[in-house]
Every structure is written in C-alpha cells, then in structure tokens.
Amino acid sequence: MNAYVTDFVGGDRIATPSTVENFIRSTVFDRPTLVLDTNLVAQQYHALKAGLGQAHIHYAVKANPTREIIETLVNLGSHFDAASRGEIELCLSLGAAPEDISFGNTVKKVADIAFAHHAGIDLFAADAEEELDKIAEHAPGSQVYIRLLVENSEADWPLSRKFGCARDKALSLLGYAERVGLRPVGFSFHVGSQTRRAEMWRGTLDQVAAIWADAKAAGFALDLLNIGGGFPAFYGEEIQHPSRYAADVMALVQERFGNVARVMAEPGRGLVAEAGMIAAEVLLVSKKSENDLHRWVYLDIGKFSGLAETMDEAIRYQFTTDRDHEATGPCILAGPSCDSADVLYEKRPVQLPIGLKAGDRIIIRNCGAYTSSYSSIGFNGFPPLDVVVI
Questions:
Q1: CA 20 to 30 Å from 219, out of 88, 130, 342, 373?
Q2: 8 Å CB contact between 277 and 363
Q3: What is the pLDDT of residues 80-118, one digit of tens each?
Q4: H-type helices in the chain, by residue range?
Q5: Per-residue confidence at 299, pLDDT binned at 50, 70, 90?
Q6: How far apart are alpha carbons 173 and 33 in whole angstroms?
Q7: pLDDT score of 345 more than 60
Q8: Contact, 106 vs 131, CB < 8 A?
C-alpha cells in the first residue's frame, strides 16, 4: 500500500514520491484537511491537452473551485465550464476572459443569465424550450448548445436523467432556438463520471453521432461538439495515461464526426483528483458483536464533510496509514456524524491494518475532486473540510 502520485513511464504506472503525502506526514492537523499541489494540476492539464489536440479544455469548476487551482488554469490558458453565477464571478475575478467561459448548467436563474450576458459570456447550455426562452430574453442573440440525454453509459457513476433531452426532441430545440433569435451551434453530452477506458465512450458517441447527422441533414449548421467530462482518476482500478486516454477519445470522435470546427472537453475529476489527499484521523474501531466478521472503523470525515461521492460506493477511495506494514483485515468504514446514512463502504469492505486504533492518522488519496466542494457547513457541528494548497 505504498502511496504514490500518478506517474507513468512507457505507459506504465510507477511509484514516485508525493509532495502532498510528505507534507501531510510532516504536519499536525486538528481537523480533516484536503492538501492540494497545483503543480500536479498543471502536469495533468498538460497531459490532457497533449492528447486532446485542438479541443479546448473547459475545466468543470464544480470539481474544485479553490482559487489557486483556478489561477493556475487561467495562467495555462484553460477555458472554464461554470454552473452558477458564483463560479462565473470566481473565474472572472481571477483573470479568465468571458469568451473562455461557458454557462453549462441547463437550469439557470433568469438573473444569473442576465448577469452572465452583461459580463460578456456568449455561450449557454439548454435542454428545454423554457430555458431557451429565458436565454433569448436575457441574453439575446447568444450561442446555445443543446444538452443530450444519453443512455447505457459504461461509467462507474452513470449520470441520471436530470439533464439533457432525448433524441426525439433535440432537433426541435435547435429549431426553437433559431425562432427565438438565438444561435444554436451544437450539442453537448456527458458520458458519465469516471469512465475508466476510452473504449467505453463508443456507445455514447454512436448515440450522439446519429443525432448530429440528423441535425446536419435537417440543415442546421452545427460547428460545436461539447464532449463533456468523464475523464478518470485513479481509485484502485487501472486507467490509461491521460494523454493516451484523451487521444483515444479524440480518435473515436474523429471517426464519427469528422473535422468539427470546435470541440470542447470538460474534465473536472480528471484534472484535479490526483492533485490532492485528505489528512484524516481514526476516531473509533469497534465490533457490533463478538462474532462480527468485520470491524467498524469510524473516521473524523464522512459523507457530509467531504466524502459525498462514497454514495452507493461509486467512488472507491484509496487509503494509507502509518501501520501499512502490519497485517490487514476487512472493515466497514463510516463517518463521524449522527446520521445513519453516514456509512462510506459496507457492501465492499475496505482492507485496513488490524492494529488500527483511535488517534491513528489515515490519508485518503486522490481526493482533489468533489470533496471540498461537497463539504457541508457544520453538519452536526463538525467543521467543513479545510483546504491547504502547497
């Protein structure tokens, strides 16, 4: 269980010293803390960019809105996918140009649409007539792309039906956008979070390509394809080198769509997850009965203080402790709150050292995405996840 950051030689993952882990081991924390290294964010950006080629990276700000991450990406020339007025204001305040920001949430307040338009943002997502009406009235003449609903994702965490429209509605929305004075420029979709291998994109891309072909045949001059996120991080199951992964995805896109004038990609997890680790502490190790096969290990961090993605055990975080040289055994992992839903891993117990006890440090790897942004404010009086940037 030696800890490492993502590094590859000849396409193979190798163990390398981690600045984040070294910092955690040399520091005393009085609360759960996410430690981030922006140099690792920059490395991942360059790796993804190399594979994506001419496609523009629009970082999904919701994955981690830490100011130092946004500043790093602005300086690297990244574009941004914003889900709210707050994210737009953050990016603009740190130097992002409005033309490099898309308002990618398909459910927006009228006031926020007007704010974005006034700030110079010209690219909006929609998946319903009423949303197009709102954009037409408060951001007249803007570019819009229609979010598509895709089925049968092979991702570890397929997305729900909350966002996107079905194939039978996609073309009518393009036409409706034109009629209300907007400029429909293309489609967007999301293959599903943590799509571990590029080949898993095939089915989704086939679905979108069929709709794209229908739209072109109907006379719509589409020039924008937003392939969304889905770029993976390492959570124990092997993944491709980010450059190879991105290049393979783009090859699949090229096969189906040819030369699209504008391709957008919206990595969030794939950009920042492996740039951070959480310093946590064991609060209690116990058994429910003398015959219980599994220990319960309670941490000072749980679903409501940063580890929301353990819901349904979709994201399998990796752990390291100061006792990793000892024998291990299965345990059920839980958070500190009084909510009975605050159990992290029970269906598939986690292997942790048998000698683990209260007060021991535990490091949760590759937590740079969707931890600090999901952390609640003081549920049960426990403080939200602290963030340190090194």
A1: 130
A2: yes
A3: 999 999 999 999 999 999 999 999 999 999 999 999 999
A4: 19-25, 38-52, 67-76, 85-93, 110-119, 129-138, 167-179, 202-217, 242-257, 269-272
A5: very high
A6: 45
A7: yes
A8: yes
